[in-house]
Amino acid sequence: MCHSCACQIGPSMLASDLSCLKDEALKVVAAGADYLHLDVMDGHFVPNITWGAPVIKSLRKHTDAFFDCHMMVSEPEKWVDDIKDAGGDQFTFHLESTSNPEALIEQIRAAGMKVGVAIKPGTAVEGVLPYVSLVDMVLVMTVEPGFGGQSFMADMMPKVAFLREKFPSLDIEVDGGLGPSTIEAAAKAGANMIVAGSSVFKASDPAEVILFMRHSVEIHGNGKTTEELTRL
Ligand SMILES: O=C(CO)[C@@H](O)[C@H](O)COP(=O)(O)O
Ligand SMILES: [Co+2]
């Protein structure tokens, strides 16, 4: 499969030692992370609570890394301005969380952030088709949202392959259970934005894990590196 998206690896801060979030963020950026994935959970859309805009704002003081905010919340419309003010770069909402995706996409754009749309494992991939041209990224969840450290659902790969075939230059993110043993399946299906929590933060050498996954996407996905794309 040949597509033209740059491979990016985004560690999920949920798996970090939250007592020293800043140091953990700086550690993975130094280890080669392309962006940071920040899981916002409200205890209602998902059965877990993490953090909201205040924590993101605190972290923003210490890094200019790209913040990909994965909004696992019931009323995403309520948080667009706060996430923007906190320093969010991308607001990824769940398709299942809103009755008016177009309006939300417009609201996120008006606030000045990039837009991602996410689907849970039980949601059909066709559901995102009306919005692909309006967003910057589609996130195909490879676990049930709510917790880090779960097992990768390989049966989500047909969704990724379906999107990649239709949209060769779309940024497709996968999230949940990604690591050295599962990256190949995701890469072959065509994912180019890889969220990885436990596999990066529990590793003795996070840089090695990030590099391994990057190579896998570049080899198996035939994706282009950011440098290659700049040279085009
Ligand atoms: O959105 C979520 C979970 O809901 C993810 O971002 C996880 O935090 C990824 O963690 P690992 O599965 O890589 O440990
Ligand atoms: Co996430």
Automatic annotation (TrEMBL):
Binds 1 divalent metal cation per subunit. It catalyses: D-ribulose 5-phosphate = D-xylulose 5-phosphate. One of its GO terms (molecular function) is D-ribulose-phosphate 3-epimerase activity. Its cofactor is Fe(2+); Zn(2+); Mn(2+); a divalent metal cation. Substrate binds at residues 12, 70, 146-149, 177, 197-198. A divalent metal cation binds at residues 37, 39, 70, 175. InterPro entries: Aldolase_TIM (IPR013785), Ribul_P_3_epim (IPR026019), Ribul_P_3_epim-like (IPR000056), RibuloseP-bd_barrel (IPR011060). Pathway: Carbohydrate degradation; pentose phosphate pathway; D-xylulose 5-phosphate from D-ribulose 5-phosphate (non-oxidative stage): step 1/1. Keywords: Carbohydrate metabolism, Cobalt, Isomerase, Manganese, Metal-binding, Zinc. The active site is at residues 39, 175. GO terms for biological process: carbohydrate metabolic process; pentose-phosphate shunt. It comes from the Eukaryota. Belongs to the ribulose-phosphate 3-epimerase family. HAMAP family: RPE (MF_02227). This is Ribulose-phosphate 3-epimerase.
